[in-house]
Amino acid sequence: MPDHRPQLTDDFAKLCDIVAKLRAPDGCPWDREQTNESLLPALIEEAYETAEAARAQDDAHFREELGDLLLLVVMHAQIARETDRFDIEDVTREVSDKLIRRHPHVFGTSEARDAGAVLKQWEAIKREEKNANLHYFASLPTALPALVRAQKAQSKAAR
Asked: What pLDDT score was predicted for residue 147?
């Protein structure tokens, strides 16, 4: 199988360049006006649309919605870059490092033989990283809709 990483890198860099151009002084007035806060409704809406397309098993629509979600991630990171908070490289590095840390059964010497063991290990590592003194449910996002938050709490309690 051929290595597609160079094309992936080129395509991702192109997307980042397009977003930077849209936000530039000579770019798009609408894009320039956006803030991390103003883009939150779109981020949530696109997440739901992505979920809907995945459930429908409509690959063309799913691919389109994943692209819309990725665009918003890049846009949020570009806005943060413009104010010297962080950039997309920080985002990708941090998530890569987190995946490696939280998968010691793949990248280290730990063993997890089934999905349940993986989830327990993930939660234990996450609690250790965040702060061992935090309540077990402290990591539940308060911005979740009440029903979703309750379902996540029940799932955590069951584990």
From this structure: 62
